[in-house]
Amino acid sequence: MLKGYVDEVFVSVQGEGPLVGTPMLFVRFGGCVAACEHCDTPRARTRASQFVIRGPKAEVVPNPVKVADLTARVEPLLRNLPYFAVTGGEPLEQPGFLSLLLTRLSETGKRVLLETRGQHYRELAEVLPRVDVIAVDVKLPSFSGKPLPREETKNFLEIAKQRTCYVKVVVGPDTEEAEVLEAARLVADVRGRIPFVVQPRRDESTPPPGESERLLALAVRLTDTLDDVRLIPQVHRALGLR
Fold this sequence. Notes:
Largest sheet: 10 strands, mixed
Number of strands: 12
CATH superfamily: Aldolase class I
CATH architecture: Alpha-Beta Barrel
Structural class: alpha/beta
CATH topology: TIM Barrel
Order of helices and strands: EEEEEEHEHEHEHHEHEHEH
Strand order of the largest sheet: 5-4-2-3-7-8-9-10-11-12
Strand content: 25-35%
Oligomer: single chain
Shape: globular
Helix content: 25-40%
CATH class: Alpha Beta
């Protein structure tokens, strides 16, 4: 029986992007080979020996976990929620486990949101039939410490645009405008209307003087390249939620 690594399971609202405020069940996968400097869930980079399901009563479950065991535990939490979100870590680093999990949970009739850094395009093609919305978190060089993976991201978006999808870039005071514009041009090269979300970095809940104005000016400039640009902070953090 196929097993996989999970970091945590919890109910919250979507705090990022166009679906902000929507109640969802989140399954955070464990493991991510990227080592982004400003990762907001560094714990989920590793594959731990156990994970927590934060339901009415917290339950600690050993890793790796069987899909059947995981679905049996999460289905009761999904009962009145419109979405099931898989996030990370990086879910597409465990494509077989992810595909089987989504297949099992498709029987609940819930919509599926996949949150990913948008590079594993072959793996995306494998799970695409069972995904409704794709959130592509493009890692800028100031965030990842690495050049923008242009070809992988473009190939990914060509597949992702077959579903509802949007791109998110995290921007902080040290982010150069040029790298945001490069990401915008990459998205513009992929035909189709893909919303582009500029998200202030997590530690900028109280931004330094002038930073909000700078981000607004950047968002306005991006409209020269893209049809749908949005400036959206992490709302769940403001609510004190996971």
